[in-house]
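User: Hi! I have a protein structure encoded as tokens and I'd like to know what sequence might fold into it. I'm fairly new to this, so please keep things simple.
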């Protein structure tokens, strides 16, 4: 029976994972490892999809044709727990070195652009209605601000803009657990 119906209320946040994109989107169990956890997030995650259309219409408004001309997809979140390795993945020009018990991150210099894309994978766990997963390939295009305040945690707001992840132009992979139909006719055969 379908766990997620049109009556399902999705409530709560989740985990955000990131790994370098190698041309193949890994299976869920591969990306959902502690080593790929971007950090714990604050403020949830937000997926934005925006199509652009061109409309051709006659002067009298009697005929009209609309086509889609462009699509944009972004995944946004606030990363509350992070380190220098996180900053490197959020900065196309970031470089990390570790020496003598220190991690040094250098950011900047257009010649240092690594042109890397990442698999960004958000998982919303729901033991009652089934888990939801959102996966895109892209990079952080919004930059970030590190605010150090005496009475507030430093949260990095990230915005990953999606690029096509396959030959079909896929920008977003939305996966939801819907359960299985027990005792179906195929299983009886």
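Assistant: Happy to help. Inverse folding works backwards from shape to sequence: for each of the 189 positions I chose a residue that suits the local structure. Here it is:
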């Amino acid at each position: 029976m379908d766990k997620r119906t049109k009556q399902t209320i999705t409530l709560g946040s989740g985990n955000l994972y990131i790994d370098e994109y190698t041309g193949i989107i890994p299976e869920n169990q591969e990306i959902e490892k502690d080593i790929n956890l971007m950090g714990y997030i604050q403020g949830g995650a937000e997926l934005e999809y925006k199509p652009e259309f061109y409309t051709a219409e006659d002067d009298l408004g009697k005929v009209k044709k609309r086509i889609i001309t462009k699509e944009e997809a972004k995944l946004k979140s606030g990363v509350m727990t992070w380190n220098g390795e996180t900053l490197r993945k959020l900065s196309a020009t970031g470089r990390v070195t570790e020496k003598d018990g220190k991690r040094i991150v250098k950011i900047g210099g257009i010649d240092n652009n690594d042109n890397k894309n990442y698999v960004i994978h958000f998982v919303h766990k729901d033991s009652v209605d089934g888990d939801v997963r959102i996966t895109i390939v892209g990079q952080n295009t919004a930059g970030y601000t590190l605010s150090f305040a005496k009475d507030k945690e430093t949260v990095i707001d990230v915005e990953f803009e999606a690029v096509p992840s396959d030959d079909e132009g896929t920008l977003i992979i939305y996966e939801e657990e819907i359960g299985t139909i027990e005792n179906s006719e195929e299983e009886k055969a």
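A useful reference point when you look it over: Confidence is low (pLDDT under 50) at residues 183-189. Feel free to ask if any position seems puzzling.
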